[in-house]
Amino acid sequence: MDQTTLNYIVVGLSFALYFGIAIWARAGSTGEFYAAGRGVPPVMNGMATAADWMSAASFISMAGLIAFTGYDNSTFLMGWTGGYVLLAMLLAPYLRKFGKYTVPEFIGDRFYSQTARIVAVICLIVASITYVIGQMTGVGVTFARFLEVDVTTGLLIGSAVVFVYAVLGGMKGITYTQVAQYVVLITAYTIPAIFISLALTGNAIPSLGLFSEHTASGMPLLEKLDQIVTDLGFASYTGHHSNTLNMVLFTMSLMIGTAGLPHVIIRFFTVPKVADARWSAGWALVFIALLYLTAPAVGAMARLNIMDTIQIGEVGAPEGNLAYENRPQWFKNWEQTGLLNFEDKNGDGRIQFYNDKNADFAAKAQEFGWNGNELDVNRDILVLANPEIAQLPGWVIALVAAGGLAAALSTAAGLLLAISSAISHDLIKSVFNPGISEKGELLAARLAMTGAIIVATWLGLNPPGFAAQTVALAFGLAAASIFPALMMGIFSKRVNSTGAIFGMLTGLILTVGYVFTYLGMFFIPGTNLLPNTPDAWLFGISPASFGTIGAIFNFAVAYLVSMQTAEPPQEIQDLVESVRIPRGAGAAVDH
Fold first, then answer.
1. Stronger pLDDT, 524 or 6, i.e. the higher one
2. Which of 271, 281, 291, 527 could join 88 via S-S bond, C-beta 3.0 to 4.6 A?
3. Quick one: pLDDT band at residue 169, thresholds 50, 70, 90?
């Protein structure tokens, strides 16, 4: 059986499973559509949360970014895992205790203001739409290679799949589908990693293989990788080369952005009790750790594999390069997608892959007749291409295709549900048409999700960067706008509606303005006011890191405005205390 047929079979079976679950778990009420009837067991919810959390950015793009940058991009690992702990400890249980369906509903009720609710909806939509672009990018990349269609067609197919099971099933269908998707994606991620770790180090556990000896050279694997990349003019893999301030701000932006992401928060509204929210968070951390402990090894081993495959022989000699006409099959496969490009700049029919931006090495390379780097590799392809590069069996390659799609589709569904819930429940039901029937609200939710899918697909055709980079922007937007409002809503009785509204608007406007200044209005190339380069950034702070600054301004403005205006009503202060303090606490104390 040829590889394409095998890919179609494995991916087709996974889609059939998702559709079957969606039909079985079809939402029949708004409670089932928004919160799965609050009947999801903690272990199952933890698994679904992990699938919702580990998006295309985690599965497809994160390891690719780590592979090409090394230590400096470990910020993705630190920020996302640390942020999840923050969410589990500081927000999820309290929001579940509050007992609402959506994040804007909490903000609207806590800050006793329809305006606050509407502002929260705007913040949610901006962050979630940006996030879903990254998922659509991942869907397009995966379909383009494994089903041998162009990226646009792949995007449209992925959108159709999400439409069927998300619009039909709502949170109930999405939850059970995400459980299946977690099993698919974690299996697809770990099996190739085990094979590759065994081949390179002889160790079956990838996270341990990362620190083992490279079998072929006898050197520690990371030391061998450092040697290869520095010999070709690239920065060392294990060294720190970026702006430390920007690195800290980026990590913090990912952390607090994580804790402010509505599509993850609403997962904790689906469990029966507050205690179950804590257990769900614990189980989700276990399931997430299985992939996140493996990702650094996957990144390093992918970089080593691709360098060894293309750059064969002694570095610095033209005859050491792999002749273009003898390039491996995986290279040819990915060339067809347009995500890997070779340009023979010196006409020798060979591939020169090196850092031509390194002035010292570029001068040396010219002595050998090299006229610049000739290979352009999209970083989103590395995890998907890794099994082919390592020449693993065809069923492993097909499994990776299914896993990449599962990761992207699971998160896309969660994001689209958060958007549709905000529109149907927080705008239509709560603001514009309070008398709408449950049947009408359910229809509005499905229509809102359909509209969100169309918008996300359109934006996914022109993403502003690699999947993980686009997702990082969404985290920054959530960090600057939603997280501070949630934290102050839970832990401060003094912050009032006026302060919360001004704080959210300040954080959102500052961050959106900064991002569009360097990335262009609606990510249209050439419309940015300033070049997106470290030299042009304000104090060296990248657009993806600015969410932390936006959050600081959000907190400061909310607090200062609240101090200058009236205190919240007493019933709101009592509500905050009841959410934060366990029922009956102190009742047995005799004063």
1. 6
2. 281
3. low
* Cβ contact 315:308 at 8 Å: no
- At residue 28, the pLDDT reads 63
Q: What type of residue sits at position 531?
A: P
Burial 180-193 (b: 16+ CB within 10 A, else e): bbbbbbbebbbbbb
Question: What's the DSSP call for residue 341?
Answer: E
Q: What are phi and psi of 578, to 5 degrees?
A: -70, -35
User: Over 80: is that where the pLDDT of 190 sits?
Assistant: yes
Instruction: Check whether residue 341 and residue 426 sit in a common domain.
Output: no
Q: What is the pLDDT of residue 358?
A: 84
Q: In this model, does residue 587 exceed pLDDT 60? A: no
Asked if 73 contacts 247 with a C-beta cutoff of 8 angstroms, the reply is no
Query: Do you know the residue count of the chain?
Result: 591
- For residue 288, which of 476, 133, 77, 128 has the smallest C-alpha distance? 77
Asked whether residue 147 falls in the same domain as residue 282, the answer is yes
DSSP 474: H
Q: What are the distances in angstroms from CA 573 to CA 67, 156, 162, 477, 544?
A: 49, 48, 41, 28, 35
- pLDDT of 104-146, one tens digit each? 888 999 999 999 999 999 998 888 887 777 777 777 777 776 7
What is the Cα–Cα distance from 194 to 197, expressed in whole angstroms?
A: 5
**CATH label of the domain that carries residue 178:** 1.20.1730.10
More confident of the two residues 452 and 472:
452
The β-bridge relationship of strands 375-377 and 340-342 is antiparallel
Phi/psi of residue 533, nearest 5 degrees: -130, 150
Q: Which residues pair with 377 in a beta bridge?
A: 340
Number of domains present in the structure of the chain: 2
Alpha-carbon gap, residue 30 to 235, rounded angstroms: 53
Helix or strand run (H / E) with residue 104: helix 103-110
pTM for the full predicted model:
0.81
* Domain final residue pick, 330, 361, 387: 387
Cα–Cα distance measured from residue 116 to residue 64, given in angstroms and rounded to the nearest whole number: 39
Cβ proximity of 188 and 62 under 8 Å:
no
3-state secondary structure of 340: strand
Q: What is the pLDDT of residues 410-445, one digit of tens each?
A: 777 778 878 888 888 888 888 888 888 888 888 888
**Which pair of structure tokens corresponds to residue 229?**
């990349």
Cα within 13 Å of Cα(495), Cβ side: 27
* Residue range 313-347, pLDDT digits in tens: 344 444 445 555 667 778 888 887 777 888 888 87
- Rounded to 5 degrees, φ, ψ at 340 are -140, 125
Q: Which domain holds residue 333?
A: 311-387
404 near 56, Cβ under 8 Å? Answer: yes
